[in-house]
Amino acid sequence: MPTAYFTPRLFVFLRDLKRHNDRLWFAANKDRYERDVRGPMLRFIADAALPLGRISRAIVVEPRPAGGSLFRIHRDTRFSKDKSPYKTHAAAHFRHRAAKDVHAPGYYLHLEPGRVMAGVGLWHPDPTTLLAIRASLVRQPAAWRKAVGGKAFRAACRLEGESAARVPRGFDPDHPLAADIKRKDFTALADFTEREALAPTFLSRYVDFCRASAPLNAFVAEALGLDW
Fold first, then answer.
1. pLDDT tens per residue across span 176-218
2. H or E element: which one contains 141?
3. All domains of the chain, ordered by start, with CATH?
């Protein structure tokens, strides 16, 4: 039978953390974080390994408290005016195995009060990587249209992300894919409700999203010379 990984306590904890985002409060409530957020996330990640592996053997799924697919709850505040020490959402990233060395596509899961979403693709690639993807759009326009224009893809998600104001230098501003060439991110998102995240079917629905959106990852991976 399908398993419900998350309970309302996950969102209750995150709402409380948003109101009390300091180290003393977190220390006093760390057991709640581990029981209601980290533990369920790690179980979800562990059970996602097999179905995600069927979509692509290149995707890495690591259910570890630190250094794996689970994002740490601590914020990096070194370069931020906001010195709040903790993130007020829970998230996981299922990365391409090449991502330790280069920018590479993957899958994302985000759980936050009022915002539950799944993501796919490559966010904020470095200039070299971005140039390679744009060049692939010009070289293989039909492959790009097929990747993001399929019925399953369009039903599962929508293309999102930042775009440049103008077509980058070196590319034809009148190219039929000019709007896509201007993209700075090659990502797509799908939204869920908190109720859907708490349902026993959420893992299967997330995997369905990953499967339907896989053509975007496959296109980006091919553009970068990576397997998929």
1. 999 999 999 999 999 999 999 999 999 999 999 999 999 999 9
2. helix 141-149
3. 8-72+82-223 (3.30.930)
